[in-house]
Structure prediction request, 229 residues.
Amino acid sequence: MRTLRDHSLSLFFLAIFLTALVGQAIAGHAEYNSNEIAHAQLLHQEPETLSFGRYLVSSSFGQAVMENWQSEYLQFTLFILTTVWLVQRGSPESKKLGEIGTQTDKEQRIGEHATANSPKWARARGIRRWVYSNSLLLVMGAIFFGSWFAHSVTGRSEYNQEQIQHKQEPLTWVQYVGSADFWQTTLQNWQSEFLAVGSMAVLSIYLRQRGSPESKPVGSPHEATGVES
Prediction:
């Protein structure tokens, strides 16, 4: 029980993530087959429906998943990077106003300033220290670019399937990445993530949630910056 308590936050989000993913797959499978049947009836053809297993590995499902993942990881990648240099007075999502930048080795407790409990790579030198010092940004960025690429590949496959059905020329990957179809779905997701992060940074200046580490203590003044519960 103690282990469950100590990891309850990550376990909770893993559980609801898997639940939502399964729900999306079930609903998406039903919608895909429904659309195929309706399209086939219009053309007086046999519908090309998919089994649930085939739908899970289809470009239709892959595109739906990847276009959301890449926008989420872009949000966190940008937030991690911009909060090194940019601040927001009064927001707990911001560093304190005088702490702009990467800070000194002493402040970051790396190299000779590392403690006995510091990670091993925090005491390393050269490239290993640089990699570990930027490891969160590097991994988040890699997941973003990977999911963005997967979105472009699955999106192209889905788009070209419709092109062929309508007896039109399919697009190459480069052509699809430059198309309005790709950027409409991409920017549609990006703008919502940017709005959410910006809203959180500003609303947390004036609003509180007692007990949440994402909020300032209820009694903290509005201008208090970089202060969390």
The chain has a mean pLDDT of 92.
